[in-house]
Amino acid sequence: MGAVSIMDFQAKKKSTSEERRKELYDLYLNRHNRLNNWDFVDRGAYNIIGEYLIDKPKDILYELAKLKNPWERRTAIVSTYAFIKKGRVDETFNIAEILVDDDHELINKAVGSWIREAGKKDEKKLKAFLDKYAESMPRVTLRYAIEKFDKPTKNH
């Protein structure tokens, strides 16, 4: 956790060079096998992966979302928070669509949390996503996704 925290602090410093950000990004992905819990992913994915990918192709996130390792799948969805913060929610909903039927509870919680956050930027997209998947998605995902809605919207 110490190493991921240091990497995260470096990645979010405005003075960190693009070259160093690339090194951190590569290190995180190359040593992902050492990340064996949700807290490692949640600590580093947003700044180290997501922020690095802001102006780059996002293919790696789609690859991660399809891998066997749950922490790689979680990295895919958590990294999209960098895009959400900039008002760009498509990647979050696209990754969530891949992970919506995941069998791991900590992936379900992450999907629900991040589509909820994306919905704060584009509630229409969140509601459309929920209209499509609410009946089939894991209940925990749905609970996390709708927790900020008013009662009539939750009931819908």
Note the topology.
Elements: H1 2-12, H2 18-30, H3 38-53, H4 59-65, H5 70-79, H6 81-84, H7 90-99, H8 105-121, H9 123-133, H10 139-146, H11 151-155
Provide an overview of this structure.
The protein has eleven helices and no strands. It is mainly α. The protein has a single domain (about 1-155), classed as Leucine-rich Repeat Variant (Alpha Horseshoe), CATH 1.25.10.
What is the compact description of this entry?
The chain has 156 residues and is mostly helical. It has a single domain, classed as Alpha Horseshoe (Leucine-rich Repeat Variant). The chain contains eleven helices and no strands.
Q: Which architecture would the CATH scheme give at its second level?
A: Alpha Horseshoe
Helix and strand sequence: HHHHHHHHHHH
Let me know the largest β-sheet: none
Structural class, by secondary structure, is mainly alpha
Q: Distance N terminus to C terminus?
A: 41 Å
- For the CA atoms, what is the radius of gyration? 15 Å
Which features would summarize this protein structure in a list?
mainly alpha; Leucine-rich Repeat Variant; 156 residues; 72% helix
